[in-house]
Amino acid sequence: IHESHPAWFYCLWRLAVPCAGVHVFVRDEKRYAVLFQSVVLPCQYNSVSTQTAVVQWVYKSYCRDRSGGSYDTGMTASYLDCSDNSRTVRTVASISGSSVTLSEYYKNRDISIINKADLRIGEVQWGDSGVYICKVVISDDLEGQNEASVELLVLGKLSELSAWELSLPYAIHLFGCFRNSSSSAVIDVPPNTFLPLAWFKHRARDQNQV
């Protein structure tokens, strides 16, 4: 190191090097959607490269079925930590420039990649619950963090429930996007749609214990 540059300058330079690589991140690590409604899984990336990026979304099923389980926003390791050989793994879609390609399994589904890298799923199904990985490949930018994941849990639609049957602090925010202040989870809920009563009772109980 040249004498004119102190040791701290070299350390700062070393810390800045990874910033030159591609960086992929998701705004919300967990998202919830009501059955047969649409959902958007957000993904963003930064890169200094001018080359066209290839964005690929990959689906991984949970290690155990969550469709009939608790609606708690906490995901235990048992649902996530298992080898790919013991669960379903498949490519959902990819995009290069403006050309979107769906894998064979999703050919007849209303699925697209929007806003450069966000995955939009129309009419979500029970089998859509799982972990979705957003991966970005740029030919001349292979350093950095090139993938990030978001969990999606599909909930049943129980429109027969009235708002008065729900815990009021949660019910009044159902018209639009509900953000759970105690976690990074986001719930996409269309107007006049109500989530399972058990979910709200569970969240209310957790709040009372704080």
UniProtKB/TrEMBL annotation:
The entry's keywords: Signal
What are the BP-aspect GO terms? Answer: pancreas development
| Entries under PROSITE patterns matching the protein | IG_LIKE
GO CC aspect terms: membrane
Query: So which residues are the signal peptide here?
Result: 1-21
Sequence ranges assigned to domain Ig-like in this UniProt record? 37-151
Put simply, this protein is called Si:zfos-1011f11.2
What's the source species for this entry?
Salarias fasciatus (Jewelled blenny)
Tell me the organism's taxonomic lineage: Eukaryota, Metazoa, Chordata, Craniata, Vertebrata
